[in-house]
# Entry
Amino acid sequence: MHETPNRVESSTAAPDPVPVDGAGCHAGRDQLLRAAAAAGKSATLERYARDYPQGPHEQPQSMCPAFGSLRVGLRMRRTATILSGSACCVYGLTFTSHFYGARRTVGYVPFNSETLVTGKLFEDIRDAVFQIADPALYDAVVIINLCVPTASGVPLQLLPREIKGVRIIGIDVPGFGVPTHAEAKDVLAGAMLKYARTEALQGPVQAPRGGRSGRPTVTLLGEMFPADPVGIAAMLEPLGLAAGPVVPTREWRELYAALDGAVVAAVHPFYTASIREFEAAGRPVVGSAPIGYDGTAQWLAAIGDACGIASERVAAAQNRVLPAIRTALVKAPIKARITLSGYEGSELLVGRLLVESGADLRYVGTACPRTPWSEADRDWLVAKGVRVQYRASLEHDLAALGEFSPDIAIGTTPVVQKAKELAIPALYFTNLISARPLMGPAGAGSLAQVLNAALGNQSRFDAMRDFFEGVGTGSSAGVWQDTPVDRPQFKDRYRARLAAKRKAEEPV
Ligand code: SF4
# Structure
């Protein structure tokens, strides 16, 4: 953690913040939104509302969204990442970062009611940025405003654009404006692409570390398993194309190469701000991904089309890879009824692979919104009889679990928890499914191994259910002499009183 410097170098005035410390993602969403608008953040919030349209899932139901931005910053070389927010939020975010092996320092500029209210917090952030912006160590410094500083209007846009050649990127990532951590990755990736695009417009920029590719490249949008870009490169080779950088990038200079791609493959479909930058750079964007047999055939055709490649050459590239995918799928069948949910943005792609592996997939829920870049996947799944739910809430996912009684559920932590309670084998999407190759021939058989192993555990679940039979659930769970009696009428009374209080506080 970086200490807050005491030195004050600037007198740049911040707008009077509305006192919102103490509010957070578990309470006061509307209050935070109103405060942020009053504190001059309306334009940012309106852009987020357009980029990340809300639905039933409009609040974090999983981890804090800012984790997405933090993770993108922490994974970049020569990039310092600083958080500005409540200590409890920062504790959770640093904990999660290190849980996922960040092995990097997370900067923190703490605040208290006084520094927040007087505008001193912005001065402290400014000082911290000046202190850390050492060009020998960093290409960029990222500062992330969490909920309370965003709601208080801490004006990161007033930070210098660069200090001694180190780029300064200030972003607001409030849980009340950015619905998922997936989309928070886009907030930072989009801000960096915008900056890099402006630099490229102004003059020569750094080449990629390994030099520029001799062939036109395909920029890959969305974090993926490390083997996937290699597999994609092999599939592109017969088209005379090469795989470009993966965005979010691991290094600043890769941003220029990403913008320089002949076409952008929006493998993950929720990178709206990033796509805006690619389109501003004149790059065509192709949705979906080379996943399974049909997906790979369609994707190669779409890439070929976007790059003006002759149809015979596209057909040759397809013929080179599709038989291997078919063989891999046939060799690794999945025979099970499945429900699938997640918040990574790749849920529809995984759904396609499951169906092509022979699974009876009934439901795909994604916390991400519907965009044009997953439309082909949606159409394909719906044509196969799969229900697709965008901006799925936990309630949607649990309802699907109840409705379809799957042989195995793939989902987020609470879904997996519920499934296990019902003695249904279940797999975590993030840890076990997204952490495998999915693209091309390597991805075609990769899900069967983990799914079939989990399906083989049904007898253990049955044994556990029988063992725990009769120990009660909910408020009566456990072994009691006097079993607690639930009193739902108390909770109903509180709920009614809280609703009346909220109504009374609504502006007229
Ligand atoms: S920053 Fe994250 S953890 Fe903190 S209040 Fe906002 S959404 Fe919740």
